[in-house]
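Regression test attached.
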Amino acid sequence: MTSHLLSVDSLSRERVEHLLRVARRVEPIAQRRQITRVLEGAVLGNLFFEASTRTRVSFNAAFCRLGGSVCDTTGFTFSSMAKGESLYDTSRVMSGYVDAIVMRHPEQGSVSEFAQATNVPVINGGDGPGEHPSQALLDLYTIDKEFSRLGKSLAGAHLLLTGDLKFGRTVHSLIKLLSLFDPMHITLVSPPGLEMPDHLIDLVVSRGHRIEQRQSLASDFRDLDVIYTTRIQKERFTEEMSENFTGVSREFIVDRAFMNRHCAQDTIVMHPLPRDSRPEANDLDPDLNGDPRLAIFRQTDNGIPIRMAIFATLLGVEELIERDRRDVRWFVPEKIGVDDADC
Amino acid sequence: MTSHLLSVDSLSRERVEHLLRVARRVEPIAQRRQITRVLEGAVLGNLFFEASTRTRVSFNAAFCRLGGSVCDTTGFTFSSMAKGESLYDTSRVMSGYVDAIVMRHPEQGSVSEFAQATNVPVINGGDGPGEHPSQALLDLYTIDKEFSRLGKSLAGAHLLLTGDLKFGRTVHSLIKLLSLFDPMHITLVSPPGLEMPDHLIDLVVSRGHRIEQRQSLASDFRDLDVIYTTRIQKERFTEEMSENFTGVSREFIVDRAFMNRHCAQDTIVMHPLPRDSRPEANDLDPDLNGDPRLAIFRQTDNGIPIRMAIFATLLGVEELIERDRRDVRWFVPEKIGVDDADC
Amino acid sequence: MTSHLLSVDSLSRERVEHLLRVARRVEPIAQRRQITRVLEGAVLGNLFFEASTRTRVSFNAAFCRLGGSVCDTTGFTFSSMAKGESLYDTSRVMSGYVDAIVMRHPEQGSVSEFAQATNVPVINGGDGPGEHPSQALLDLYTIDKEFSRLGKSLAGAHLLLTGDLKFGRTVHSLIKLLSLFDPMHITLVSPPGLEMPDHLIDLVVSRGHRIEQRQSLASDFRDLDVIYTTRIQKERFTEEMSENFTGVSREFIVDRAFMNRHCAQDTIVMHPLPRDSRPEANDLDPDLNGDPRLAIFRQTDNGIPIRMAIFATLLGVEELIERDRRDVRWFVPEKIGVDDADC
């Protein structure tokens, strides 16, 4: 039976834990200390019907790191679809060419429809307001990896999710994944009108977690383990919302001052990126750049091992990687970014 | 002497038969049971000045399956050409970078002009209303392979070509290729105004084949071996034709009812794809999906072995593939499409 | 310490000579007589925010020839940047995915800003009116290689630079590189208003070279060793200049007649390409095609060994290539272009 990766809803705790385990095992390759060629000869179809350079390059690089080749398709139009071709036909045709397919599409549900026609593994790279499961997995992997390093565990942790909790699909998928694990304490803070949907809160509570909703970041917090911030997704607002939206007030900003007031030395700050660095955006503040608590670039780096794990498990090569690896011979900087902290 | 693949007109029966033979030999690789690396280190320039995701990905994947790397160029503009660069210069420059070139271009004759400047093999991936020889070869390969499976032979076969026979360049190229072989019986049916051009009919008849023209599919047929359907190429209509065109009437549709009335259990249905699945298009009907006679996805799958054969012969490595192959280690589904028939 | 390649200003004569040496060593691979796999497993991020098919394919192919994989990004928009992402964030994120980055961008200074955030090697592939150092290096490499073949040396050579010397950034970078070497004689000829900027002339003179400025090509020249012609960069003109520009008069054209009047049998003609072959453009004349003195295609071919040398030195694998090479097994034409001269 073929597996796809279409939604976090279909993931069991066991499958998630297996993915995280494989991701840990491929870290030396993701970090360019070793190479593997287990997928030599395989071809990935990387179909991006919506622009997302970051996600596209991450999937592309992850497949290359496993030894495979990638064929990218980008742009808002797909020539055959413009001629009336069904998703069914497109899916079956592409499946004859490649060994795995990543698809990003502006319409919710389109990736699932595409996957229904094929036995070649399909990975949802984001379907509009719908799902983006690899992002949720890399977020969870980041929390798990950072907690490992800090000697913490998920059980009983206190996480703050803030920003646009209504349209931010990454926080929706992340909270579903977190809910599979032992009880934790999750605080939600968002500007008025951008609250987390009730059905998600109900789901998480029903699984034994404690959810707390606050009106502002200008309040008292117990020490936080994780702060997960998100960009305001103005492009998904209704027309009415856009007209009435006057921006995010300063009281929702996570910056160095907030961190010093509410957080410990081992609180980590996450963000799915891109963050809006224009001053009026009041997104996660760049004044935290270089602070070891800022985990956003370690988080994006984790896209590589997680996506390698996704490919390796869907294509059934995760056990082969142990035996097929050798050392990298080219120059790799000790720190990727000039401001990367030691941690 | 360098060879290009610019037109089916330049192909002898011997060269065609050699290509089909090589395609058969690379099937285990095309079907992902084995890999080869004979073209490791080689680079393909895949130049698409006109959008065609399907064809581009097929050439790309075929080159990768031989072990090579691919550099894609897509989009309607080519930056240097916009600055007044000649095709001669573009061709010579690209030839210094890559080992083979696939070119698709909206203007008829442009690919041949491009090829005149270079000794690097150039493959015509479609030049507007002109040629698309790899499509004709994969069509012929499909007929040959299906006939093999069914214990039939080309000699004496009855083929029905239907749809837009005036602008459908794939049927023009296919009928030329077929005409190189032993006499067969070819029936042509198209909506008024979209008939096969006379010079092609004359050519085929002059080579000993029997051509029959009918007004509609609502007539009597002897058992057919192959039904080759095509999409109406409205984008190539003259302005006058577009104004007068009121759509294709139902009497030109190939669907399950037609198949049951006129065809045997071993008649195959082909289509160059994309097919227009919008109900008003009256293209090949999706009600045949899952029917083993529907060969359209086996046909598109055949693009990989045929294009591998084209690359392998132009680059002179077809004999090396036998010795340079090993088994695939990743998961490959038994059937590519969920509706693929056993056959 | 990480090195980038951002500008020719940062290059010492020693580093330039090392690059040329490595380029010579990789020639058998660049010319497709051998392959190497030293960068197998490495991934290049080829980020083109401005269209330049020629440069993009050249970098792509050079990285592939070293055994690496390439992930291209093309187009004028970058989806994350449109959402307010800083160059700092984009740089750090991409650096987590790939092992080297080539970036082309329409804004001067953007590539340097991008490079400041990362320890992954960044190569400037052209930043608007700014720098394009790999072009200058391949130009210098061409002169050096042609002089080697002809038994000439740089010291004391007579070079003519002509065309748009004001906006042609390639001549700016080239003249800076040349100025690092022993004294030579450089003649400058450009249409009125398109003269070489004074600060560059001052720099070159201060390093001991002789600069001569002429009004027209219709004058007396001593035998020239190199003629470097350039296209008029109308796209960089100010509005006022565009309005007043009436085209280049015939007296600035380098063609066969000019060559026969002023040049020896061993004078070489260069051009950074693309050249504008429309008759009214009065760019380098196609009547020289096939003339062995026309070095423009040997020059563009040299983009591969130079870019291989750039990658190999930045990634520290230049010493490994000697031991990691094997013969090419596919067909390679003796001459790349149909008109290539024996030389």
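Expected vs. actual: identical. The interface with chain C takes residues 2, 38-43, 45, 69, 71-73, 75, 77-80, 83-86, 88-90, 92-99, 116-121, 314-317, 320 of chain B (CB under 8 Å).
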